[in-house]
Give the backbone structure.
Amino acid sequence: MTAAALLVAGLGLALFWAPEDADQGISQKIFYVHVPVALTAYAAFFWAAWKALRLLWKGGDRYDLESYTAVHMGVIFGVLTLVTGSIWAKVSWGHWWVWSERQLTLFLILFLFYSAYFMLRYSTDPGPRRARTSAVYSLFGVVLIPVSFMAIRLAEGLIHPVVFKRDGPDMDGTMFLTFCVCLAAMLALAGGLYLLELSGKRADANLRDLRERLA
Amino acid sequence: MSGYFADVAALARKDLLVELRTRDTVPAMLLFVVSALVVFHFALPEESSRLAASGMLWIALLFTALLALGRAFVGERDQGTIDGLILAPCDRSAIWLGKTLSVLAFLLFAEAVALPAFALFYESVTWELVAGLALANIGIASVGTLFGAMAAAARARELLLPLLFLPVAIPLIVGGLGATVSDDPGRYLAFLGVYDLIFAILSWASFEYVVTE
């Protein structure tokens, strides 16, 4: 509910209140969706790694489910980031994909990495071992984020000249406020979906448990 | 501490001995890397730059490494010897270090053939390339051994390892290629060193969680 209200408020503000960007005009509005979605995806990956760390530290099935669900959220929001970023790139630069956009390239790498997480999970038999293996893998994920980012920056100077540069985070007050509302909305949305999926997965696990006991 | 390194040395020696007797992995790697370099000749247009040839070399070496990494734990699983290793009275991370060292030795063998072949077919080998390879080898072997152990426990293991490993290997390619072709190789070599340090420590610390039942 909170998520829905914030989302409506955020998008409303973005569309009607925040001033249009002088350079990019209306297309700049996607900024209010794209960047919060990206930050939410990062938050989900870090949350997954945090739960993974707790799992390795203390053990327990609940951390496994939580970490798995968080990765799931992260991948969903990561795909949204790629899609919105791609649309933005098409509108402002005329191409669907631009390698010099660092964040997008990073999200592509992360998307590949975390897709392999699901492959790993589905092809390993359930049990404490799968839980620990997945946890280790998701820990590697958050270490990979800064390392890949550095690598992309290094590669840029090497392979491609830096052509496009956006302005820094200097926005005026209304823009910044709108951005914050949108960010809160996305985080709330991700949190809500996370809790929903988690309760579904828990119910599923409990049901399986009961069935096994009955059988 | 000396006991730990004695374990590591014994484990690495065991792998090398097994390879010496069965000759399963290294000959395949050598053949693969030379074949890949030959195939690349036909994939590169006539006046390709030195940049392109170096990139191809790095791809060939990465895929050759995947062969060694895929084999590293598959044999142990199939023969059931992994249980013996885990039950052995040594630190589990010693298993990882021993495997990593043996994989490193296999990679060095492959490169000892690949580099002269590269020099013969394409471009001369520079010291920057050799330094980059030396550092990248450490990263490939350490992360790859851990992921190899992960993949070996799964059903689709040969399929899984490249999927797990390639996204993590992208920084290695960037660093290695950068060291090979850039005017300022120091930056890229330093990056490779940092990568090795971070991921070797992470793999060393997390190996135990991956192999125990």
Summary: The mean pLDDT of chain A is 83.
